[in-house]
Specification:
Blueprint (H helix, E strand, L loop, with lengths): L9 H11 L3 E2 L1 H11 L8 H11 L14 E3 L8 E3 L39 H9 L13 H5 L8 E4 L17 E4 L1 H10 L4 H7 L2
Antiparallel strand pairs: 1-3, 2-3, 4-5
Pfam family, one: HNH
GO molecular function: endonuclease activity; nucleic acid binding; zinc ion binding
Protein name: HNH domain-containing protein
Length: 207
């Protein structure tokens, strides 16, 4: 059985339990599987909550909320066995569980995640000196000028690209103003995306 991580909402809890049970089960079996997969204290009646979530997310139920259509009644309403639609080969639906194929896809985002990583230090003073000595703030690749396009909002804005990636520098290596290039945000992303293109190489790729 594949590892199941903690769900982001209650209907996903029920779906995870049903998937673990093979795609079809009775509500009491689903509730027991929820307890097994996601141990912890549950407030209220878990079995009742499981039944309610299934009915809200099934077009076979009179209590369907007419949004997600995740579950179906295997033997018809009153039969007591519920199935997971995305595991039913005879009744396929969209993987996102929406009943309407043209309804906007929805994903769960915004959860706070703590990540630890190494960050290569860049010299802000060097970048400031570099920008001060520029004769123009237009991109050295495509000539885009933030000030001309966005007015006061874009005045004085340009990004500094390290011709030799900071990730390739030895700790304590010296960077000169000549090692930087003025680029717009788009060209900067393309330079880093390629990993190997120079300013001149990217300029030659412009259509």
């Amino acid at each position: 059985m594949t590892e199941i991580t903690a769900p982001v909402s209650r209907f996903e809890t029920v779906a995870a339990a049903l998937r673990s049970l093979g795609g079809q089960a009775r509500p009491v079996e689903i509730a027991d599987e929820v307890r097994r997969l996601f141990p912890g204290s549950y407030t209220g009646n878990l079995l009742q909550s499981v039944r309610g979530r299934i009915q809200e997310c099934s077009s076979d139920s009179h209590h369907w909320k007419k949004k997600r259509d995740l579950f179906y009644s295997v033997h018809g309403i009153g039969g007591g066995v519920w199935g997971l639609r995305d595991m039913d080969p005879l009744n396929p639906v969209n993987r996102d569980g929406f009943s309407d194929s043209v309804e906007s896809y929805m994903a769960f985002e915004g959860a706070a995640t703590l990540r630890t990583h190494l960050r290569r230090e860049r010299s802000k003073s060097l970048v400031n000196r570099f920008k001060k000595q520029l004769r123009t703030l237009a991109c050295s690749v495509c000539d885009f000028d933030f000030g001309k396009t966005y007015g006061e909002l874009g005045h004085g804005f340009i990004e500094a690209h390290h011709k030799v990636p900071v990730s390739e520098l030895e700790p304590g290596a010296a960077t000169r103003i000549e090692d930087l290039a003025a680029v717009c945000s788009n060209c900067h992303r393309m330079l880093h995306r390629s990993g190997t293109l120079s300013i001149e190489d990217l300029r030659c790729r412009l259509l």
